[in-house]
Structures are given as C-alpha cells and as structure tokens.
Amino acid sequence: MRYGICLANIGSYADPRVGVRVAEAADAAGWDGVFIWDHLAFVWDAPAADPWVTLSAIAASTSRVRIGTAVTPLARRRPHVVAHELATLDRLSDGRVIFGAGLGGSPREFGSFGEPTDPKIRAEMLDEGLELMRELWSGAPVTHHGKHYAVEGVTFAPPPVVDRRGLRRRALPTDDDHLVVLRVVHDRRQVAAGTVQVRLDDLQREAGGDGGVERVPASLEHGHPGCRREPVRRRDHPERPT
C-alpha cells in the first residue's frame, strides 16, 4: 500500500509556490505521491493554478514522490498537447509521472468555454484521446483520422521516460502498487459535499487481489485547525514530525 496527497490547487492553494512547499514537505516526510486538480474556471469561481506549470515546479523541487493530475478531463484538452506535456514532465521528473484522466465533473466548466457538455460526447473524446496518446508515445509515425481528432504523419519525440505498460483503464497504476490519497482542499463546502468514494476494493479485485484495501476518505481544508496544529509526519515514523 502506498499513500499520496491530492492538493486542490484552487483558492488558498492557487499560489503555485504553496503547492511546491506542500510537495517538498510530503517528499521529505516519506509520502509516495502528490497530485493536483486540473481546472480552468472552477465551479465556485475560485482562482485556480495551472496544473502543468505547478507540476513542473514540483518536479524540479522534489526527488522521489510520484506526481500527476487527479484527474485531467481529456475532452477539454488537445490529446497531442497533453501527450507532449506529459512526456516532457516525465523526463523532468525522471519518470515519476502518473497520468490520471477522466470525463470531468462540472458541465459548467466545459460549457463556459463552448466545449461539449454531453457526457457521451466527452466519453468518446476521452477514449479516442487516450488511444491517440498511446499511438503518439509509440515513437512510430502516426496518422489518425477519428471522430474527434485528426493527426497526419507525425512522429512524436521524445516519449515518456518509461512506458509503464501503456495507459490503463483503472485508477491504480499497477497490480501491486495501490495508492491511497489524502485530499487537501481549500473550502469547507467541499468537505460538506462529501469525499470521493474511491472503490478500492473493486479495483483490487480487478487487479486480482482479495478486495481487502482500506478506504481513506479524508479531506483537510486550508486553515482547518488540524492543518494548523499538525505538522506533516513521516510515513516510516508516524510519531515523528518532520
């Protein structure tokens, strides 16, 4: 079992320097991953930091934690641009990137920019976009004429550092490398709305395990008393603050 922190890079955490400091503390304390949200105009009209710029700064300021988005609504972005950004970020971080992709949760965030809000269309774009990214990362010339995207005779280089068995249709990266994520959010409304119920048992059964993975549905808001009083603690020595 591995443990990560999901930082909501909005509101009080929209300053990317704050995200870098959190990531540095997590890296030093022995956490296994730091992940940030991917939003343009968040539903609460809160300020939001660009995830790729923030992750680049985090990659340059840490040495061991895995990093990535949780998650990128691929239908809102050009797959070939995301593939290029991810390959560059993976090389900058020496292969520490985990890519999370999904449909996206807020129709308003899509509709505000004239993008498709129909979940069926977004799902089509997600599936086709992931397939196109696989093709681009193969290193072979790519010609793609799909329903939503077109590429003509492109060879992408450089690829990510390591192609870890390609993009998978599951939330966990490998059969043995389960990752439990603690979310850090900026607003009490997010806590009131409830936490994302990650179906870890189902995912472990899919991976061939016995379904005995423990859920950690925890959220902390910026300024919460627990955040103010409790320093980041080491994973190997929980009783010892960093």
How is the secondary structure organized here?
Blueprint: E1 2-7, H1 16-29, E2 33-36, H2 51-61, E3 66-69, E4 72-73, H3 79-92, E5 101-102, H4 107-111, H5 119-137, E6 142-145, E7 150-154, E8 179-185, H6 188-192, H7 200-206, E9 219-221, H8 225-229
Parallel strand pairs: 1-2, 1-8, 2-3, 4-5, 8-9
Antiparallel strand pairs: 6-7
Helix pairs in contact: 1-2, 3-5
* Overall CATH class: Alpha Beta
How many domains comprise the coordinates? 1
Spell the H/E element sequence: EHEHEEHEHHEEEHHEH
Structural class, by secondary structure, is alpha/beta
Order of strands, widest sheet? 3-2-1-8-9
What count of helical segments does DSSP give? 8
Number of DSSP-assigned strands:
9
Label the overall shape. globular
CATH topology: TIM Barrel
Largest sheet: 5 strands, parallel
Radius of gyration: 18 Å
The CATH superfamily appears as Luciferase-like domain
Q: Termini separation (Å)? A: 21 Å
Write a short abstract of this structure.
With 242 residues, the chain is α/β, with parallel strands linked by helices. The chain contains eight helices and nine strands. The chain has one domain (2-229): Luciferase-like domain (TIM Barrel).
Describe this structure as you would to a colleague:
- The chain contains eight helices and nine strands.
- The chain is of the alpha/beta class and 242 residues long.
- The protein has a single domain (2-229), classed as Luciferase-like domain (TIM Barrel).
- A five-stranded parallel sheet has the order 3-2-1-8-9.
- The radius of gyration is 18 Å and the shape is globular.
